[in-house]
């Protein structure tokens, strides 16, 4: 895997934001004889005329309509054209992805700006020489990361799940979906598969608050438990709905389990209770604080401002200089200091600088 392309010196001065990209595909070509293709997506970025691999998704077994749990994070420079290329391969092992032409399922090129502007881009996949990859399409959904760059660490387990297998126990995994304002669902995380276990303990994982709930604690989350099938036909065990706010309250009250329900069973079976329960074992919030958070959190005693009055930056006696000492009004540097102080004062009053009114 190549190194992430470095932005040009001009771009480094431009407006920068971070963008999360979610990828899914439809109607991929089937390259396997006995099963379906095992797709994986490679993300490449153009740097100095060369395509450099930035990241790659997980491999999804035997699936021609994959929704990838991997979230690609890229830096978006507003004033620069950043070319991206998404390549989809049928994987025969993570090390071999992209190694053989016959594993290539199609590619698509666009720019970061196009994805950010449209928020949701769906394009056909192309093979080499501009040939369509059948009816294959790729969809990329973008979301700019908000000012809150915190993340949460979660750990789940389940108890007494329904057994979907005849000769062994279920192989459960858990998926968490965020429900957006338009009622669409975005896959947030997919756990590993725990083999032959009706009371699995899944590995702890970290996810950004932006990805989990768009930093809105009351946003609804849909959690689904599946029995894994190597042919891609996973059996539905059950689901439950919650919010990040509910998770936090439940953790504090030690009431940290949800009934996993199968709506079909609830209708058909008179004595049906649930298909097992899912338990929240741990929840840790890691906040990433802003500069003003540190100031207003008690670090203001270490806040120091220095002003360079050297001649290279202007003569304080010259009325054209930013350092000019005007006997009747403050200069530009003093105005800046006053503005910072007023922002901090408003932040202290309202908890959010945008909530106050600068005087």
TrEMBL record:
GO terms for biological process: cellular response to calcium ion. SMART domains: C2. GO terms for cellular component: plasma membrane. It holds the Pfam family Copine. GO terms for molecular function: calcium-dependent phospholipid binding. InterPro entries: C2_dom (IPR000008), C2_domain_sf (IPR035892), C2B_Copine (IPR037768), Copine (IPR045052), Copine_C (IPR010734). Gene3D superfamilies: C2 domain. CDD domains: C2A_Copine, C2B_Copine. It comes from Bambusicola thoracicus (Chinese bamboo-partridge). Residues 1-125, 132-259 form the C2 domain. This is C2 domain-containing protein.
């Amino acid at each position: 895997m190549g190194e992430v392309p470095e932005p040009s010196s001009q771009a480094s001065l431009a407006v920068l934001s971070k963008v999360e990209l979610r990828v899914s595909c439809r109607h991929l070509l089937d390259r396997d004889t006995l099963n379906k293709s095992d797709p994986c997506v490679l993300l490449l970025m153009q740097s100095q005329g060369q395509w450099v691999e930035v990241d790659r998704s997980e491999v999804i077994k035997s699936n021609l309509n994959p929704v990838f749990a991997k979230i690609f994070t890229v830096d978006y420079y507003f004033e620069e054209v950043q070319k991206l290329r998404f390549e989809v391969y049928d994987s025969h092992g993570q090390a071999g992805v992209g190694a053989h032409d016959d594993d290539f399922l199609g590619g698509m090129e666009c720019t970061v700006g196009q994805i950010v502007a449209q928020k949701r881009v769906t394009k056909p996949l192309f093979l080499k020489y501009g040939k369509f990859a059948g009816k294959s399409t790729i969809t990329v959904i973008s979301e700019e990361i908000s000012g809150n760059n915190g993340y949460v660490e979660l750990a789940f387990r389940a108890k007494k799940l329904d057994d979907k297998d005849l000769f062994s126990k279920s192989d459960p995994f858990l998926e968490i979906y965020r429900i957006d304002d338009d009622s669409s669902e975005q896959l947030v995380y997919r756990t590993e598969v725990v083999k032959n276990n009706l009371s699995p303990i899944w590995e702890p994982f970290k996810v950004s608050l932006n990805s989990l709930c768009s930093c809105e604690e009351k946003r609804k989350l849909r959690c689904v438990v599946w029995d894994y099938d190597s042919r891609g036909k996973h059996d539905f065990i059950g689901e439950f709905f919650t919010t990040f706010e509910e998770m936090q309250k439940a953790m504090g009250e030690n009431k940290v389990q949800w009934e996993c329900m199968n709506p079909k069973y609830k209708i058909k079976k008179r004595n049906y209770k649930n298909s097992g329960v899912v338990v929240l074992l741990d929840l840790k919030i890691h906040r990433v604080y802003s500069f003003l958070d540190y100031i207003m959190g008690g670090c203001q005693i270490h806040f120091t401002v220095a002003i360079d009055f050297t001649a290279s930056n202007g003569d304080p006696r010259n009325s054209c200089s930013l350092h000019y000492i005007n006997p009747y009004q403050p200069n530009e540097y003093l105005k800046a200091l006053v503005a910072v102080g007023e922002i901090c004062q408003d932040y202290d009053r309202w908890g959010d600088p945008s909530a106050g009114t600068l005087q």
